[in-house]
Write a structure and sequence with these properties.
By secondary structure, chain A is an alpha/beta fold. Chain A is built from 20 helices and 19 strands. The relative contact order of chain B is 0.08. Classes of the chains: A alpha/beta, B alpha+beta. Chain B: It is found in: Cytoplasm; Mitochondrion intermembrane space.
Chain lengths: ~600, ~240
């Protein structure tokens, strides 16, 4: 390998990757060389040769491993690996998780245990970052890092790992290079006939690929035709209907998208990724603040790329489409690294001082207060520190890339060929300090997809469909009982059972508060029979904070009471249903 | 024989096409200009292209002047089995040697091994075997101990930083404590004529304390009326 440290990450939303990169930079300050790369991009055949490996792994809500470490993890789980397979290696694990979820940091915990079982020696106890802490995972990360550097000093006592004076003030190497093209070189880009929105999507696609290359993720697949992950399709909107009553506080939309020639296929339960468009006013504000010229054309490349690669992988776009299409300037919160870099470019002493404070261990709580707890955006932060003029290649490095928004697909291709429907609620909320924000979330969508599929199969005639039972909790029958008529039709055609097939719980109707859990208990006998005699599966979709847990608890009560068994045994039964995938939770927040 | 001065020219799919015109057992020589760090990459691409018995030839021919790096020659063979061929492997180690190379299934040398200086022991070959569908995986849930399965309790009020204000739906008792004391609330006078003893309030949220009454408001100059932006809600809905 040639470097002192190998830093491997498994990251779903980019947080673990950020941590891995910052550990790499901190290592560099301590005169240690490192390689930072996603687990799946690393040739695992070389793992046993390593001396010191640091793992940064996040756990998603339901305890799943991030996509870019799935293969690596599978490999490590092989029974054929002997208990001394990793003798000679030392490891350190830091996990990112959320103790609000049942599966808290299970990925990092399992990884730590498995590495030890394969003969690797732990340099220090695993660190567990928790989103529930005031300053998030930083709370655990800072102290863990101190221990890590101490452990490495013990491991290599003769190696000078002191921080060289003055090195902390140095600007690190930028991941990207950006060059504004002259008029003639720019012509090729400017002359390409593409309307604005398409240009923005093209910029996003190209920058996404470049980011993966520059960040040591698994190399993206070579030339592909057709659409798929990282290759968006411009879909037309066929319908956009409000499906909540006009007097209801929430504006929920049923949206139909035409997938026509995209070749995209999906199954019930799949998610659709939709690339949002940014507010043009915000884009203009950003351009004014940064002094960038929207019309200029820039050539971007991964810094340090060898010359043949560089030409092949460079991206040429207008600055305007890059900012509007690829950089999330008024949505996602920046990371700590943003403030670290901004400190280099601020010229007012009080700004520099504040930025350095925010980036430090001592300032992490105040940073959290200012940044994540207020949903601060890049644009707002730049306007709060007006003296900082950040060059374009650094903006690319520190401004979060626009991420697609995921929606559960609410339709079945059998019922609506070449279409995808989504059910989206537009939510207005206020931050702790009364600043207005907007959000989107979905609810019953996957079940509409599921039932449409079953209805279509039934209509086709050759498959026998067991009737389903839909329990739907909402505010009122005339307010937000989405797709009511469709469910009623399914009851009459037998897709939903005639008895107890459609059970609604209205929480704000006629002065009564009825929840799905109440209804579950009312139908205890039938549900018990379904779960135990009929081999029924349960799918729960709801807000992560309470609803899924409450439903499970209600089902435990049903099983305990109807089966006349102790509560503990009922709990075991529900757990077994979950591990055998007969009980599946889709939780969102 | 395929030769290129362009690094990265021989990628897996190209090698695959080249191997397609070989007879079974036929040899392919690939020469490419590589840098010192890229020798592995070329061999990897040849492997991924479906060839076996990969050998890097140690003599580097010289390139025309002005070229970067060195010319690396890699020799490889098109395997004698066709895709879809099956053979059983026993994964029980025979003495110290994993049995992966028995029974006619030839595992190609990994690029690392081709380059190792002979210190890789037989036991390390297990890392290079490709994962087949027959490979059993352990149940990962078994890795967790009882302690691992515990979740930390939700941080108590004491875990919040001392300067943090009570939350709107406070459940830890801080709200009552604050209610007993004097709170600095924002008044209309303060909006018309904002003052700041510390001098930081006017600089914006980035410089304000967590208890600052001006939090959430835009920047201001002392004494100048604060202009509220149109998307700022002052009343609770």
């Amino acid at each position: 390998m040639g470097t002192d440290l190998l830093i491997l990450f498994g990251s779903q939303t980019g947080n673990a990757q950020d941590v891995a990169e910052s550990v790499g930079r901190s290592a560099q300050l301590r005169q240690l060389t490192s390689t930072v790369v996603a687990m799946d991009a690393f040739d695992i055949a070389r793992l046993h040769e390593q001396v010191a490996v640091i793992f940064i792994a996040s756990t998603t809500g339901q305890g799943e491993t991030p996509d870019n470490m799935k293969q690596f993890w599978r490999f490590l789980l092989r029974k054929s690996l002997p208990t001394d397979a990793l003798n000679g290696m030392q490891h350190a694990v830091f996990g990112l998780g959320d103790s609000g979820y049942q599966q808290y940091n299970t990925v990092a915990k399992k990884l730590d245990r498995r590495l030890a079982a394969l003969g690797s020696a732990a340099l220090l106890e695993r660190g567990l970052g928790d989103d529930q802490h005031f300053s998030g995972y930083d709370s655990a990360l800072f102290p863990w890092l101190e221990q890590l550097w101490a452990a490495l000093q013990d491991l290599w006592p003769h190696k000078d790992q002191s921080v060289l004076p003055g090195s902390e003030g140095q600007l690190p190497t930028c991941k990207y290079s950006a060059a504004i093209l002259n008029f003639y070189d720019a012509r090729a880009v400017l002359d390409t006939p593409r309307e604005t929105h398409e240009q923005e999507v093209f910029a996003w696609t190209a920058f996404t690929r470049l980011e993966a290359i520059a960040s040591g993720l698994a190399a993206p697949p070579k030339q592909f035709s057709g659409c798929g992950p990282g290759r968006p399709f411009m879909a037309s909107v066929i319908a956009n209907r409000r499906i909540t009553s006009p007097d209801h506080f929430q504006d929920t939309r049923h949206i139909e998208l035409d997938l026509a020639s995209s070749g995209i296929v999906y199954e019930p339960g799949d998610l659709l990724n939709i690339l949002p468009r940014q507010n043009p006013e915000a884009v203009q504000r950003f351009l004014r603040r940064t002094g960038l010229d929207a019309q200029s054309v820039v050539r971007l490349a991964a810094a340090g790329a060898e010359s043949a690669d560089r030409v092949r992988q460079s991206v040429q776009v207008t600055v305007g489409s890059l900012v509007a299409g690829a950089l999330d300037i008024h949505g996602a919160c920046p990371k700590r690294f943003f403030f670290e870099i901004l400190a280099h470019f601020a010229t007012e002493p009080h700004e520099t001082e504040r930025l350095l404070y925010f980036a430090s261990s001592e300032g992490r709580d105040d940073l959290s207060q200012y940044n994540t707890r207020e949903g601060r955006t890049v644009l707002e932060a730049l306007e709060d520190f007006p003296s900082a003029q950040v060059p374009l290649q650094w903006l690319l490095s520190i401004v979060p890339r626009i991420k697609p928004r995921q929606f559960s697909i609410a339709s079945s291709l059998r019922a609506h060929p070449h279409q995808a429907h989504i059910t989206a609620a537009i939510v207005d909320y206020k931050t702790p300090h009364k600043r207005r924000k907007q959000g989107l979330c979905t609810g019953v969508a996957p079940f509409r997809a599921f039932l449409e599929e079953r209805a279509a199969l039934q209509a086709a005639g050759n498959v026998e469909i067991a009737p389903c039972h839909l329990y739907f909790g909402c505010r009122g029958a005339n307010q937000d009982f989405y797709y009511k008529e469709q469910w009623q039709e399914y009851v009459s055609t037998g897709v939903l059972a005639a008895d107890g097939g459609l059970v609604a719980a209205f929480s704000r109707q006629d002065g009564r508060k009825v929840y799905v859990t109440h209804r579950i208990r009312e139908h205890a006998q039938q549900l018990f029979s379904l779960l135990t005699h009929k081999g029924a599966s349960v799918y729960i979709s709801g807000s992560a904070t309470r609803m899924p847990q409450d439903v499970i608890a209600a089902l435990e009560d049903v099983v305990a009471q109807q089966g006349q068994i102790p509560q503990q045994e009922a709990k075991v039964f529900l757990k077994a249903l979950q591990s055998s995938r007969r009980c599946v939770i889709e939780a969102w927040s | 024989m395929s030769r290129s001065n362009l690094r990265g020219f021989h990628d897996a799919s190209f090698v695959g096409r080249l191997s397609g015109v070989l007879q079974s057992g036929g040899k392919l020589l690939v020469q490419e200009a590589v840098s010192a760090t890229q020798q592995d990459t070329l061999q990897q691409q040849v492997l991924l292209g479906g060839l076996t018995d990969i050998r890097a030839c140690p003599d580097f021919a010289s390139l025309p002047p002005g070229s970067m790096g060195q010319l690396l020659t890699v020799e490889a063979t098109r395997p004698s089995w066709e895709s879809g061929a099956r053979s059983a492997i026993s994964l029980k180690p025979k003495a110290k040697v994993p049995n992966g190379t028995a029974n006619g299934v030839h595992s190609a040398q990994s690029p690392t091994q081709a380059h190792s200086n002979g210190t890789a022991t037989d036991k390390h070959k297990i890392w290079s075997l490709p994962v087949s569908a027959d490979d059993e995986l352990m149940d990962e849930d078994e890795l967790l101990t009882e302690e691992d399965r515990q979740r930390p309790e939700v941080p108590s009020g004491a875990a919040c930083p001392p300067t943090k204000k009570a939350c709107a739906n406070c459940s830890c008792g801080r709200a009552e404590a604050e209610a007993a004391g004097v709170k600095a609330d924002l008044t209309p006078d303060m909006l018309d004529n904002p003052q700041s003893a510390c001098g930081s309030c006017g600089l914006g949220d980035a410089f304000r304390c967590s208890t600052c009454p001006y939090r959430g408001l835009p920047k201001f100059k002392t004494g100048e009326k604060i202009a509220l932006s149109s998307d700022f809600l002052t009343a609770d809905a």
